Amino acid sequence: MSTFKSTNQIRHLAIDIETVPVRPLEDYPSEVRAYLVQKIEAAKALDPAITYEKYASLHPSFGRIVCLSAGCLASDRHGNELIITKSFTGDELGILDQFNRQSAYFRNTFVHFNGLSFDVPFILTRMRLNRVPCMNQRFAIIRRFSFDPHLDLLEFYSQWDRAKSIPLGVLAELLGLPLPKADLSGSKICTAFAAGEIRRIGQHCEWDVATTLNLLRILVGGYDPVPPELIYSQEDENDYTQLATVLSSDSRTRSVLDPDLEILPSADPILIPGSSVVRVGRDWPHP
Fold first, then answer.
1. Distance between CA atoms of 51 and 194, rounded to whole angstroms?
2. Percent of the chain, pLDDT > 70?
3. CATH superfamily label, 7-22+62-265
4. Which of the residues 6, 86, 120, 151 has an alpha carbon 20 to 30 A from that of 28?
5. Domain residue spans in the chain?
6. 120 near 110, Cβ under 8 Å?
7. For residues 49, 185, 129 and 120, what is the CA-based torsion angle, rounded to 10 degrees?
8. What count of Cα atoms within 13 Å lies in the side-chain half-sphere of residue 208?
9. pTM of the prediction?
10. 237-249: per-residue pLDDT in tens?
């Protein structure tokens, strides 16, 4: 199966991360441990159920990335609109390095849901702490009231009013988007990671990416969503499996794309608010 010749044939690159604590609370020096306990106790005023695991996972100084998923809109020569997703997992340094190299020459729009407040600054902070220079300076631009280079669909939907924001899963339900029955909730990522369920975490993360891309189609483009049977996970360079069946233990339920089918850029144009140009197909080299 042939894939895009350039990252800039991708118009919108959606991302999502999953995080866990860097280390157990008891492994920190006493001064750091006392600071964390104080912050967690203060946070209970807003979230009585908050734990160290949740607090640390949301804070890039105390949390680390265990999965970074990315995805894009695509099409095939028969005119079917597709969603293609992929996960980077393993040690955090390897995840950051892979994402850094894959996105280095991307010059179009990064898309996410709550990414300006969480995913993007978390990634950038973990890059700094791991001494990984960000190769894409556009990715490092974080600014409010702008949808270029980052289109945060939470902010787009709520019109920058946090009082009107709702979670990704709730918005997906309201719009009738499919959610996997066996999906993880964010609060269970730490438990799944401790149990070694890395691929399951990847699937959860990729579902969020696919949902984000469908929200982009609906809320920004005015198009119908891509149906579940046309959402594919790239497991390796030439292996695309229907995301809904990635974890199926029954090989008969696994649906794969025809290896001879060419993947093309999405045929449905989506103009990002505030931008008069859709940059497509420029021949930027791969890193």
1. 16
2. 83
3. Ribonuclease H-like superfamily/Ribonuclease H (3.30.420.10)
4. 120
5. 7-22+62-265
6. yes
7. -110
8. 29
9. 0.89
10. 677 888 877 545 4
